[in-house]
Structures are given as structure tokens and as C-alpha cells.
Amino acid sequence: MTLRITIADVAKKAEVSKSTVSQFLNGRFEYMGIKTRTRIEKAIKELDYQPNVVARSLKKKTTSTIGIIVANILHEFSTQVIRAIENVCHKNGISTIICNADDNPEKERIYIETLLAKQVDGLIVVPIRRNSDIYEKLVDENFPIVFLDRLVEGLPIDTVLLDNETASRIAVNHLIENGYERISIVTTSIIENITPRVERINGYKKALESNGLPIHLDYIKAMDITQLGEGINEIFSLREPPDAIISGNDLTLMEILKYTFENNIEIGKDVGLITIDEVSFSQIHNPPLTTVAQPTFQMGKETATILLNKINNKVDNQHSFIHRYKPTLIVRNSTQKEGVTNE
Amino acid sequence: MTLRITIADVAKKAEVSKSTVSQFLNGRFEYMGIKTRTRIEKAIKELDYQPNVVARSLKKKTTSTIGIIVANILHEFSTQVIRAIENVCHKNGISTIICNADDNPEKERIYIETLLAKQVDGLIVVPIRRNSDIYEKLVDENFPIVFLDRLVEGLPIDTVLLDNETASRIAVNHLIENGYERISIVTTSIIENITPRVERINGYKKALESNGLPIHLDYIKAMDITQLGEGINEIFSLREPPDAIISGNDLTLMEILKYTFENNIEIGKDVGLITIDEVSFSQIHNPPLTTVAQPTFQMGKETATILLNKINNKVDNQHSFIHRYKPTLIVRNSTQKEGVTNE
DNA sequence: CTGTTAGCGCCTTCAG
DNA sequence: CTGAAGGCGCTAACAG
């Protein structure tokens, strides 16, 4: 690779000093002679000069780059929210570096360190909750950071997330209204106290109670995705199996669908199914899937906006740290007992 | 944000010079006294020092970062291949910056420029074919770059892609073997001469010919995704509609499934369906979908490996520039006329 | 075995 | 209105 040309080359060609070129690059034309300006412009064009942002970053101590660390990129939620974040960042001339921690705290730690070493201006993370010490340090340093989807107690860090209890309540109520009575919920493991899972189960319990329905512990499955197939089998093997299932997220949904498919269980009729988190194929699935959708786009946008404001020191100190978003029920056929016809 | 500590602080604390610390950081312990070494180690721990990679990059003229530009992140192919690339990069201590050009040449150009300004060490791109001038310049500069999925003629740039004609041939043959005769193919627009689409259509034609079947132009739909719904409708409105469809990719698949669902067309029985590119829900779809899968993981791995070798100047000049991969047929029920039972 | 020195490419006072 | 000088944090000879 041939050596890149620098500001010095431009200066020489335009017969001005480096600093004048620098001023030009930074849009400070105020006191610049029009002829100087055009000479520089011409030189840049002819040499096809591209500023070196690494050098600029070193000097300015800001990189116009933020890091995004998601716990698990396999969730559609992650990719959707990332796209929304990128959108607003891009509009503001900010680049993003995306990292997938794979639900591994060690990996998360390494990513945080790497990103800090890269001098990112801020961080958005779906935290795995384990690296509290690091987060605390960042807070102490007043480093711009925003959490997404998951709460970490005791840390004054802005967090954008779903109103998960409401999501469950919507799901339960909808199922009851449609004649289902024995409602089960299936989520991934809660041993790490992951916010959405815990809250969705809590919301589920509360909703059952307020409908005067009993809470049946056998109907609650929260386990690692690799064992969930077995867990689902247990539910359906109960003396009195549920007549409806709430799927905690898109990954659990796949396991449920796999099971019902393999066992010829007819969704809607044999068992009602509603899933939290919209999925790409919900409309073309047979039957189409009723979902409780998160406003992922809005949430991503809000998260990015909060972070950018922090970076620019435009923080309103009045605000609370927790930003909850309301889910939306999208009714389709998987919660209709009488296989509704299309439209 | 408090000011970060630098190599100078460590040097002072450890009572050595900056260069000694630098040597330590770069693992050149060879001539270093063991006591010096431990003193430095201690200082780093105590100060919680993190090297500034921006400064290092400026000096070393290498950033240990590569850029990935995909034409359209909505394809599952993109995300899968990105994950494979990240995998091998991560193992080699290389970071990745992912950009989605959204099938927009202008956006692609800006991303290339931004990434170069960021001094990335190399580029992997799914090219939109329009910015040939930029690519040529990069080639002239001997800048490390690898293309993925799409060919750009006349440029000596390594390209990793599917053997698309074979993919179509496999699809056609499989359909014929299963008793289908009037085979249609549906892809996104080919006005830009996008390699996979063009090749898949060519392969389709050739396969029909070698099976002694006529090529029916009405059965070939290649149009923008936004109009594809209409195109599909046209196919099914023909006097003699096809009895099987080859879907060109995952996005076209969604359109097809939407149409068949809305029109109560039974897949397998009313119309056979096979899609090129594996999709997440192929197994749990009803009926499960027969696909022609790309070895995305391998392809991503190969792409990254080629690029890293280029970056490290370990290039074998003997190689050809085009690396073709064989697709795999995954037979499921969407190509079975007699609704096969599970298992 | 360790320190001195001289930049990497850019930005930013501060003189002129 | 423009230029000279210093330095961001780190690395890499080259002395010692």
C-alpha cells in the first residue's frame, strides 16, 4: 500500500502552511482569503487527500465512535435495536462498533476494555450483570454509558427497556379473553436474574392472580435454551397440560414451534400460543402468530439519543434513569381456538 | 470523564523510562531485568493502565481493524457470513466495523471513504458494482480487499461466492425428480447485473434445457422486492401457472409465502417450493421448506482468511481470484406433492 | 538491559 | 488573514 498523503502535502501544493489547511478542513473559513481557500480546495481535489482520523482522534481525544455490546445477537430484538441506533448515530456522524458478548461475562469484560482502549466516546450495552465493578468505575469516571433491555440494580445508569410486566399481562389477558384457561409460560434461564425474563414471569403471575386464576408452578419453565426442548416436553406430559403457552422471547418460540410441529400439536386449536417479541415470520407462519411486540425502533432511537446527549454534555439532571416502553399486542391466529380464516 | 493515565505515568511509577514500558507492553521481555518487569507489572495493575490504541495506531500505521460493507444486511446470508468473519478476526485480535450500504452506491462510497479515513487495515465488501473507480484505485494502491457474493468484472480482486448455477441446477433437478414440470423462478431485480441473481437465472435456464424442458419467459420474474408481490400474482394468473417455484433468496421467499398464504395455495401440493439460501424458520414452517443452502460459515471463514493473509503479506501469487463454493440441497416437505408425514 | 530521541498526522494557541 | 511551534500517547532505532 502506497503511503497516504498528508496535510503537509496539501499545504505544500497549495503553498500555504499546514495550519491553514487544518483550519480549512475544520470549516473555519472566517478569516481565510478566498483565493487561499480555493487553492486549498484545488490541492485537496488533485491529490485526492483524505484526512487521517486516527491522528485527529489522538489530538482531539474524541473518536466519533461509540461501542454497542449486546448480550446475544441471536435475538431479533438485538439486531432491530442496533439498526435503530445506527440510524441516529449515522445521522450525527458517529460510527458504531458492534460486539456480541454471547452471554459470556468474560467476553463482555474484554469487549468493554477493547472499546475503551479504542477510545470510543460512549457505550451502549445490554449488560450481562456480573461486571458491576467495571460499570461502577465507568460511572465514577463519568463515562457516557447507557444500558438497554436489562437493569443492573444500584447503578445510576440510564436504562431503556420494555415494560415487561405489562407485556405479560397483555398476553395473559388476551389468552383468557379467547377462552384459554391453563396458561403456561416458557422462558430462558433466570438463574442470572436477567431482567426481562424475571419481570415477564412476575407479570405473568400477577396477571393470573388478578384474573383469579391459580399459579401452577409446573406451568412455568425457565431454563437454558439447550434444555428447553425437554422442559417443553415435561409441560405437555403433565396430567393436565396447559391449553396455552406464552413464549418468553423469539428463541424460546423456536423451541416451542419445533416441539409442536414434531408432535403434531395444532397451534390455536390444541394449544394457544402467544410470543413476546415480534419475529420476522409471524405473518407467514401457519397459523400466523399472535405477538406482543416491543417498540424496538423507538427504543433504539431513544437509547442512542440519550447517549449522544451525554457525550455532548447536554444532560438534563432532572431525569429518571429508567425509561420504560409499552408493548403492543398484535393479534393473529395462533390464539384463536377456531382456526380463523384469513382476513 | 477524568483524564486517562498514560505510559508516562506508568514509567514514573515504575521508575523506568517510557520506552521500557512500551517494550513491556509489546512483549519484548528478552533483555529486560526480571525486577524491572515486575515493577512495571505492578505499576500497571495499581494504576489500572489501559494502552491507548489510537496513539499506537498512529505510530504503527495499522489499526488491527477491518471494515465489512454488505450490500444489504436484511439477507440472512449477510448476518451469517458476518458472524463467521468476526469469528476468525476475533481469534486474530482484529476488530471489525460493519456497514450496511442498503444497496445504495452512494452510501457504499461514503462508507469506503470513512473506513479508509479510519485507517482500517483491509476491507471485505459485497459490492454494489458502480464504484469501480474506487475499487480500481484501491487495487492500484495494493490495499487489502476481498469481495464476497458478487463479482465485478475486470478487477483483479479475490472474490468468494457461491456456485450459483449449480444451486439452480440442483433446485431444478430436485423439482423434476419430484414430479414438477412447470418450474418458475423468482428473484429480485437484475437491472444492476447482480451476480447471484443473474447466475441463478442462467443456471435455471441451462438446467431446464438439459432436462429437455422449454424455457417459458413468463415463468421468470426478476423485479424489485417492492413490486414482487404483483409479479408473483402475475405468475399465478397465467393461463397455465407453474406447478413449482424456485425462490431466488430469502427476501423473495417472504413475498412468495405471503402470497401463497393469502391465497390459500397449499405449498407442496398446489405448488412446489424450493428456496436458495437457508432461512431460520425453514424447519418449523408448515410445511418445512426445502432449501439449497450456501456454506455461509465456510465462505465467511475463507473470506476473512484471504484478507488477513493479504494484510500480513502472506499472499500466494499462484491463486485464482475466484473462489466458488458448492451449495447443499436440504430436502424437506415443500417439494413433496403428497404432504409427507413428519420423520 | 535501559534511556534518549525523534517522529506518526493532526490541531491549536499565539504571534505576526 | 496566515504561519511557527508544541504536543496528543505511543513506538522504534540507536546509544549507552
Structure explained in plain terms:
With about 350 residues, chain A is of the alpha/beta class. Chain A contains twelve helices and twelve strands. In chain A, helix 1 packs across helix 2, helix 1 crosses helix 3 and helix 8 packs across helix 9. The N and C termini of chain A lie far apart (about 60 Å). The interface between A and B is large, with 46 and 46 residues.
Summarize this structure as a short list of keywords or feature phrases.
homodimer; 343 residues; alpha/beta; Rossmann fold; 3 domains; 6-stranded parallel sheet; 6-stranded mixed sheet; DNA-binding
**Most extensive contact:** A-B, 46 and 46 residues
Strand content of chain A: 15-25%
CATH-derived architecture of the largest domain in chain A: 3-Layer(aba) Sandwich
**What is the fourth-level CATH superfamily of the largest domain in chain A?**
Response regulator
Number of strands of chain A: 12
Strand order of the largest sheet of chain A: 2-1-3-4-5-11
The parts of chain A where pLDDT drops under 50 for at least 5 residues are: none
CATH topology of the largest domain in chain A: Rossmann fold
Query: According to CATH, what is the class of the largest domain in chain A?
Result: Alpha Beta
The share of residues in helices of chain A is 40-55%
Based on CA atoms alone, the radius of gyration of chain A comes out at 26 Å
Subunit organisation of the chains: homodimer
Number of domains of chain A: 3
The largest sheet of chain A, given as strand count, sense and whether it forms a barrel, is: 6 strands, parallel
